[in-house]
Amino acid sequence: MDADIFPFPDPTDLLADTWHRRLCTVTDWLVLSGDLHQDPELAELQVAGWSACGITHVIDVREEWSDEDVVARHAPEVSYHHLGTHDSGRRQADDWFEAGLEAARAARTDDESRVLVHCHMGVNRGPSMGFRLLLEDGWEPIAALEAIRVARPIAAVLYADDALRHHLGRIGSETTEGARQLAEVESWLDDHPIDVEGIIRRIHRTAIR
């Protein structure tokens, strides 16, 4: 792929499964990853790693699973928010983004907080919620997408347009400028594609749930 078009690590050249559960720091307060391992001992080690990296709050956006009890058992100091949603490709509800913003606001009352947002693989739902949190933090849409992709090359951010629509609706910018930003996001995603099916297939070979 042309480096001028894709100035980020190319996930087709990476072992996608090694990114599945890797903590990917987007900002000093926002971290993206996949979920906990299904093996209890490995999950315990992961939670310890989260704590060691300063994670204070977890936003888990998987509809299909929750590890709240695991985190409570091994890291009771970490606040856990389960905001499950689908990954069917359909629109994400405004209520889901609102819940994510509320959880992040609660977390960021402390300057030392670090928020981990994750779904199952860290490809679509988690990065899309992370994108929404960056918009709320004042980031421009394209800069936010670039920061996420640099930090986590397997992030497809499938629901970025839903996140931006929600943001524009909240700030009252559903205007020509909002339409321009939506078009820019769509164009950026088209110009910076990743092999989502291949990434998911490689992760499935080693992951388990």
- Widest sheet: strand order? 1-2-5-3-4
Number of separate strands: 5
- How much strand content do the residues show? 5-15%
Distance between the termini: 32 Å
CATH architecture, by name, is: Alpha-Beta Complex
Describe the biggest sheet? Answer: 5 strands, mixed
Bulk shape: globular
User: Can you give the mean pLDDT?
Assistant: 91
Radius of gyration: 16 Å
The class by helix and strand makeup works out as: alpha/beta
By CATH reckoning, the class would read Alpha Beta
List the secondary-structure elements in sequence, H or E: HEEHEHEHEHHHHH
Helix content: 40-55%
* Number of helical regions: 9
Topology:
Elements: H1 16-20, E1 24-25, E2 30-33, H2 40-52, E3 57-62, H3 68-74, E4 79-85, H4 94-107, E5 115-118, H5 125-136, H6 141-151, H7 160-171, H8 176-191, H9 196-206
Parallel strand pairs: 2-5, 3-4, 3-5
Antiparallel strand pairs: 1-2
Helix pairs in contact: 4-5, 5-6, 5-7, 7-8
Structure characterization notes:
- This protein is α/β, with parallel strands linked by helices.
- The chain is built from nine helices and five strands.
- It has a five-stranded mixed beta sheet with strand order 1-2-5-3-4, sandwiched between helices.
- Helix 3 (68-74) links the parallel strand 3 (57-62) and strand 4 (79-85).
- It starts with 15 loop residues before the first helix and ends with a helix.
